[in-house]
Amino acid sequence: MSLFKKLSHASPFFLIAGPCVIEEMDTMFRIAEHLVNLARKSGIELIFKSSYKKANRSSGDSYSGPGMEAGLKLLAKLKAEFGFPLLTDVHECAEVKAAAEVCEILQIPAFLSRQTDLIQAAAMTKRIINIKKGQFMAPEDMRSAALKANAVGNEDILLTERGSSFGYHNLVVDFRGFAIMREFGLPIVYDVTHSLQRPSLGTSSGGNPEYAMMMAQAAIATGKVTGLFVETHIDPAKAKSDAATMLPLAQMERLIINCKKIGNTVEELGAEL
User: Fold this and answer.
1) pTM (whole model) above 0.90
2) Long-range pairs for 105-114 at CB < 8 Å and ≥24 separation?
């Protein structure tokens, strides 16, 4: 079975998780090892996520990653060690080929979700494409984004909700969006930690990760979400990117256990209706 089919039929959900940006090898290895053990213990399909570059930073001085060549090399080492599929962001068409040689899923960042050339360049690699819904887009707008990938022969598409702009420094998640996007016939992912960002608070983004557990559980309870996206770190306060948003690695097991219980209950209720 292809990876996309596995994700499409994941029960009760699959997990995309990892640190925001690639850091030193020891930190990456420890996070990866912990997530792999949790995935095996819980029976959840894991995709390891980290970015070799984050082009969208609040400040020009913010850490943006080790760069494509060094970052992809490190991700390849982790995949060889643990055997998990990888997801990373691509920001420009020129990055797509190299990223596709290492990663099974190419992610279109939210602020680039209307960029036709980028979506189609990524789609033409035949890798799975994860398109994040821009904070400025309505759920129904994502049909057009998916059709751009379809137009070049790729139907392996994930759509990710990460919240909508609410005033200047906040995001809100309208759970109706999960149902609207699910009507397109594609797996829907909820980006738990990014939806809890407080964008551009000074020279960095803030966040409210204390609500991550509640929001993840509520999203799974809708019965419309197939995957959860959670950025996590051993010590978020020392993380080089999204320090105010990432969930502590020590809390990941409880999140998985709680969401799995809720997801199983939703599936049981659906079978009885």
Assistant:
1) yes
2) 105/16, 105/47, 105/129, 105/130, 105/158, 106/130, 107/49, 107/131, 107/132, 107/160, 108/132, 108/145, 109/55, 109/56, 110/134, 110/135, 110/162, 110/194, 111/56, 111/135, 113/137, 113/142, 113/145, 114/145
